[in-house]
Design a protein that fits this description.
Shape: globular
Distance between the termini: 29 Å
Structural class: alpha+beta
Number of domains: 2
Number of helices: 3
Number of strands: 4
Order of helices and strands: EHEHEEH
Length: 119
Amino acid sequence: MRALAPHAQLAAVVPSWGAYYTQVARDVIAGRWKSQAVWGGVHSGMVALAGIDPALPAAQASAMDAARRDLIEGRARIFAAPLVDNRGRARLTRSALDDAQIAALDWLVQGVVGAMPTQ
């Protein structure tokens, strides 16, 4: 992305599923694999940030790294209350979304510009 649009983003979200698929292949070969939903993320190493813009101020880079560590260590939960949509409507006032609710999301969170195709 940086080669085409050098100032378009502060960092890139990069999928990193190699280790996961290696383990799945080993489990298939050993006859242990079972079909299941997988919600990998930063905490499991299946998603990473890369290409952090060198123009990002040190304080913001440090805050981003702290947020990443909080996700890895379980101190931060992305789909936990309070959640407000980008139209100002409270969508979650307590608890956290479960997997089925996350999969069925049809709204954008506050701060995201745009609309879902169903809106």
